[in-house]
Amino acid sequence: MKVAIGSDHAGFEYKEMIKKYLEEKGFKVIDKGTYSNERTDYPIYAEKVAKAVVNGEADRGILICGTGIGMSITANKIKGVRAALCQNDFMAKMARKHNNSNILCLGQRVVGTDHALSIVDTFFSTEFEGGRHEQRITLITEIEGLN
What we know:
The protein has a single domain (2-146), classed as Ribose 5-phosphate Isomerase B, Chain: A (3-Layer(aba) Sandwich). It is built from six helices and five strands, in the order E-H-E-H-E-H-E-H-E-H-H. It has helices at 12-24, 42-54, 69-75, 89-97, 113-125, 132-146; strands at residues 2-7, 28-31, 60-65, 83-85, 103-107. Helix 1 (12-24) links the parallel strand 1 (2-7) and strand 2.
C-alpha cells in the first residue's frame, strides 16, 4: 500500500516516527513534507497529501499537526477526501469501517507516541464495511458536487 504523509512543524516528529514505522512494515511511504521542525503552515501539506490520495498517487494518507484539527479541516476541502481526526483506536476503526476514510489526521500534542502508532495500525488494518454505509458515502459525494 502507498501512503502519503505530511505534517507541519508541530507534527514533524510524529511524521518521521510514523514514516519509519510504516516503512518497516512494508508500506511505500510518500513524504510530502515538511522536512524539518522549522515553523510552517499546515494547509500547504494537507493539500499535498489530500491531492496525492485523490489523484491516485497514494492509496491513503496521514496528516499530523499539533492537534490534527487544522489538517482535517483543510484536507476535507479537497473533493474525494474523507479525512478523519482520530484520537483513539475506536475512532480510527469506525472512520474506516463506516466512513471509508482515506486520510488519518493526528495531533502530536494530543496523542501519546505509542497510542499514535496503535491508531495508525487500526486505521490501516480496518476495512470499509460497505452495505448501508455505502449509501452514506454516496450522499457525501453528492454534497461535494454541490460545492
